[in-house]
Specification:
With about 270 residues, this protein is of the alpha/beta class. It is built from eight helices and seven strands.
Amino acid sequence: MSGRRVALVTGAGRGIGSAVARRLAADGLSLVVNDLDESSAFETVEELRAMGFMAIPAVGSVAVPESADHIVDAVREEFGRLDVLVNNAGVTRPAMAHRMTDETWEFVIDVALTGTFNMCRSAFSLLRDVDDSTDSHNKKVVNLSSINGIYGTAANANYSAAKAGVNGLTRALSREWAPHGINVNAIAPGYISGTRMTSVQENGGDFGLPEEVIRSVETTIPIGRVGIPEDVAGVCSWLASVDSDYVCGQVIEVHGGMEIIRVADYA
């Protein structure tokens, strides 16, 4: 078993997940980079390796229980331990609720909520079984939620419900797993640039927001700017560190003071 701490980050091929992987690698952890898209996963891995960090890919869908098991198996086979699990994988399919199809609803729930549960369930034994007398850290699970899961957002009932579920899952697991030395917390980002949800929506596209909505949202952030993935990665770094060993079951909002993205009824 390696003495270096190991982190698994899902959805790490781009955006927040990629930024989290870079930050944790800089903090000295070995990285397992998951993404459904193979090329994106390998791109992040190669970037980390070029900077001198240890990283391996683990391609697969968190929405499929067997795939989640295989992702964790890759960690076990390569490193024999897991210290930090970051559940970042998620998708959006915006639509007004009365126009939302079953497929659109289920797709987002399956990835963002069920996928988070799948990864937690698959990783529990490996997180719990780390036994290294030189390591004073608790083991850490960080789930990526959203302020949409706290306040709700029009045209994103599926995403808002999924992230609200992530918050509930985080609090439930924190109670179950704290006795095993595993801290479970969540981060609820607000408007963060460079993600699928906050990109400019192309005509007929499934991702992003209309440009006029983005411009309007930018004026509502008291801190005076939109967030960047590194803002979230910094909080994740703290939650993954020994400094947060007494923090458990929390949903930390990271949004520059903005309480909610007020999306117009555009869909």
